[in-house]
């Protein structure tokens, strides 16, 4: 990869231009340049793709940030603005909430964020890589809700394997064979599973005799596949083995997860994958600080002729230079919301009427409490195991499935712990000295938090729009979002919360959960209050389907309306199941690469 | 956002009023945190925090030794505990300053005693040195990595933790 300026970019002819340098953009850059295409990657944000020093600056920003949100290490640029969790607030009835980058029109705010910077949101993801279960691809046929994908699990299976190799996933196949998830004969993941936390073991032991009522089966607490480096599996690739990828700019570190307990927002040693690990090996040019404003569409045939871009220099000024970039083929990989915003701004992909619609996330409901003994909170990767029984089942006809995540960082979510507990002890209990120290020693290592990450079905009404009234500093459109959480998901969450309470009871965990009516995600269900929260899985705005009338892209993520345009990323996913979507999105991109 | 001074490059030696002043600061810090002098000096933050609290008090024309004048020089005595308990449960300036000082040591984060929204973490090192991580038998998130797989070991029992 070579980072170039726009003068050089304009002087060359590229066969392919990729917009965005996150997961999708980087994987496609590497794959397509590997097939000898000349490729330019255009990134709206700033950043030095190969600098380890810059990474250390990010780490420093994280440590000194007083609010440690996912974007805390990554400074916002006014010329390529990004949403921030701290801007999420309830949307006033009939009004908008526009204090951040998103213009939220409600009824709920869309609570998840992304990063606009070289590396994209791969800079701050958790690294959880579970595959989708086969029924997730056929929700309409199997459960009579939502839509089917134009592809099934078996179509994606070989591409999952490619994605797991590129991203470097640690897991054991035997842990992952459940609810229909299957593997090709003899397959092993690149690395052994990440050791499960002490808490995982405590859960497994404590729940050994618990049955899931409705399903009449024992609970399944399974290690979750993770994109963090573990012990390479010598049997990988027919005995070829696997070499973990260390940090970009300093590959000698990060060969193993070392237990920094800060995977999200940032792994200090980069044992957790980020897309720069892929991009660095791609034989491509990279142009940063270049925001694509519009696709230039040939009115005769719908082909994309070029990209209208704004090149900015300095974040303190909105000065820019307008340039026009030409190529044979264009690939959007700018995140589900940015892809949709850009396509809307260009008047592209109109046939289906689906562009911008079906915006999804995984609304999560939390339970937190105190275990009867120390379970070692705040050590290790944030998530090493999940309870998976409710990822699939007949109940999905009526209500959403969910995955129960066993958090390893105590009440770090939904609070800013251990800080909040410490402050409460000091300010409210006036604790100090040995008593304060002992109270913390007694309480915090017993903190347990589970969250039930719940499926959200696609809906016409959940959408990204644009409006001439809402633009950013460079005059580009800001995403105007309309978002709701429907009864299917709410019912799933209410059930999940009740199930979570049973799990706590079984384990002797004192439930300390409260749902604050002033929270942005508050809802009432049969007289009881609950709160959902966003988890950063932004999907569904340019879904794939079987024809130009029901979808924006085909199974290869090619736009039905524009033969030389691919629109890639989680936005292509018609439904979201209960899987963290990155590994599936990466698999889709490997499928796309086979078309070249 | 206001520019924060670079506390990593600490000027406390030049602003140090007297060794007695510093000694008093450390003793008070021990009483307030439940950690001993070796623990506190071991963080490398003594001079930084001394400067922060001194900067704050100078603006108010106040002195730590005056605010906490009832403190005896015997470390961790029940007399000191009773005295501080009374002060901290009061509503005066010493209670506010003590609370901010405890938070500074435990979290590596300074909260202006007059306005809790005015807050900052002086440096990476102060975040990493937060005593809370020791108290909870963990390690600062994003630093002092415990090693591959350490998270699967049982947590420290209380006895081990206090050894």
From TrEMBL, chain A:
Residues 267-364 form the Glucose-methanol-choline oxidoreductase N-terminal domain. Its cofactor is FAD. The keyword Flavoprotein applies. InterPro entries: FAD/NAD-bd_sf (IPR036188), GMC_OxRdtase_N (IPR000172), GMC_OxRtase_C (IPR007867), P2Ox-like (IPR051473). Residues 458-588 form the Glucose-methanol-choline oxidoreductase C-terminal domain. Keywords: FAD, Flavoprotein, Oxidoreductase. The keyword Kinase does not apply. Belongs to the GMC oxidoreductase family. This is GMC family oxidoreductase. It comes from Parachitinimonas caeni.
From TrEMBL, chain B:
This is Uncharacterized protein.
């Amino acid at each position: 990869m070579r980072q170039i300026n726009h003068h050089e970019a304009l002087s060359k002819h590229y066969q392919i231009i990729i917009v965005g340098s996150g997961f999708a953009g980087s994987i496609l850059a590497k794959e397509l340049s590997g097939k000898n295409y000349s490729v330019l990657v255009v990134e709206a944000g700033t950043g030095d793709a190969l600098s380890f020093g810059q990474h250390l600056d990010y780490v420093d920003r994280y440590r000194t940030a007083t609010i440690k949100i996912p974007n805390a290490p990554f400074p916002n640029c006014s010329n390529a603005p990004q949403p921030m969790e701290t801007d999420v607030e309830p949307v006033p009835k009939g009004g908008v909430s526009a204090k951040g980058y998103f213009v939220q029109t409600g009824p709920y705010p869309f609570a998840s964020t992304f990063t606009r910077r070289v590396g994209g949101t791969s800079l701050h993801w958790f690294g959880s890589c579970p595959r989708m279960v086969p029924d997730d691809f056929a929700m309409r046929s199997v459960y009579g809700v939502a839509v089917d994908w134009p592809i099934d699990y078996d179509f994606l299976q070989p591409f999952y394997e490619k994605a797991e190799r590129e991203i470097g996933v640690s897991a054991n196949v035997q842990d992952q064979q459940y609810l229909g998830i299957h593997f090709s004969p003899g397959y092993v993941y690149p690395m052994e599973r990440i050791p499960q936390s002490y808490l995982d073991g405590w859960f497994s032991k404590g729940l050994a005799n618990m049955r899931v009522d409705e399903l009449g089966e024992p609970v399944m607490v399974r290690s979750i596949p993770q994109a963090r480096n573990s012990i390479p599996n010598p049997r990988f690739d027919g005995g070829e083995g696997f070499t973990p990828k260390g940090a970009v700019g300093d590959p000698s570190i990060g060969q193993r997860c070392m237990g920094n307990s800060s995977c999200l927002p940032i792994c200090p040693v980069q044992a957790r994958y980020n897309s720069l690990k892929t991009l660095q090996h791609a034989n491509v040019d990279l142009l940063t600080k270049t925001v694509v404003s519009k696709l230039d569409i040939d009115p005769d045939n719908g082909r994309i002729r070029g990209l209208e871009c704004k090149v900015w220099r300095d974040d303190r000024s909105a000065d820019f230079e307008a340039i026009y970039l030409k190529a044979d083929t264009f690939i959007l990989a700018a995140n589900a919301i940015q892809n949709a915003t850009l396509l809307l701004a260009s008047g592209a992909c109109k046939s289906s009427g689906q562009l911008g619609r079906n915006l999804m996330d995984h609304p999560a409901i939390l339970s937190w409490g105190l275990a009867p003994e120390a379970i070692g909170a705040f050590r290790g990767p944030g998530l090493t195991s999940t309870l998976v029984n409710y990822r699939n089942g007949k109940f999905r006809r009526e209500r959403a499935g969910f995955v129960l995540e066993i958090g390893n960082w105590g009440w770090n979510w939904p609070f800013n712990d251990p800080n909040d507990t410490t402050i409460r002890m000091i300010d409210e209990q006036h604790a100090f000295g040995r008593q304060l120290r002992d109270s913390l020693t007694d309480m915090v290592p017993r903190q347990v938090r589970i969250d039930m990450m719940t499926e959200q079905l696609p809906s016409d009404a959940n959408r990204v729009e644009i409006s001439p009234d809402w633009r950013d500093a460079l005059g580009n459109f800001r995403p105007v979002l309309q978002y709701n959480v429907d009864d299917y998901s709410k019912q799933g969450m209410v059930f999940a919360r009740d199930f979570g309470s049973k799990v706590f009871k079984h384990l002797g965990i004192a439930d300390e959960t409260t749902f604050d009516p002033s929270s942005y995600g508050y809802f009432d269900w049969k007289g009881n209050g609950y709160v959902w929260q966003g988890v950063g899985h932004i999907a569904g705005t340019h879904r794939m389907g079987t024809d130009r009338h029901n979808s924006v892209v085909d199974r290869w993520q090619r736009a039905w309306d524009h033969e030389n345009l691919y629109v890639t990323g989680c936005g292509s996913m018609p439904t979201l199941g209960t899987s963290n979507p990155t590994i599936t999105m990466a698999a889709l991109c490997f499928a796309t690469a086979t078309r070249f | 956002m206001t520019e924060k001074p670079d506390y990593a490059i600490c000027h406390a030696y030049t602003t140090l009023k007297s060794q007695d002043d510093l000694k008093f600061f450390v003793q008070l810090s021990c009483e307030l945190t439940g950690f001993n002098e070796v623990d506190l000096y071991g963080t490398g933050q003594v001079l930084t925090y001394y400067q922060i609290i001194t900067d704050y008090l100078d603006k108010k024309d106040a002195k730590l030794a005056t605010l906490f004048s009832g403190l005896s020089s015997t470390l961790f005595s029940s007399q000191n505990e009773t005295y501080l308990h009374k002060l901290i449960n009061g509503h005066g300036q010493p209670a506010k300053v003590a609370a901010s000082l405890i938070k500074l040591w435990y979290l590596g984060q300074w909260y202006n005693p007059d306005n809790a929204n005015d807050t900052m973490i002086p440096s990476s090192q102060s975040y990493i040195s937060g005593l809370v991580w020791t108290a909870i038998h963990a390690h600062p998130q994003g630093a002092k990595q415990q090693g591959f797989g350490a998270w699967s070991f049982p947590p420290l029992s209380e006895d081990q933790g206090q050894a």
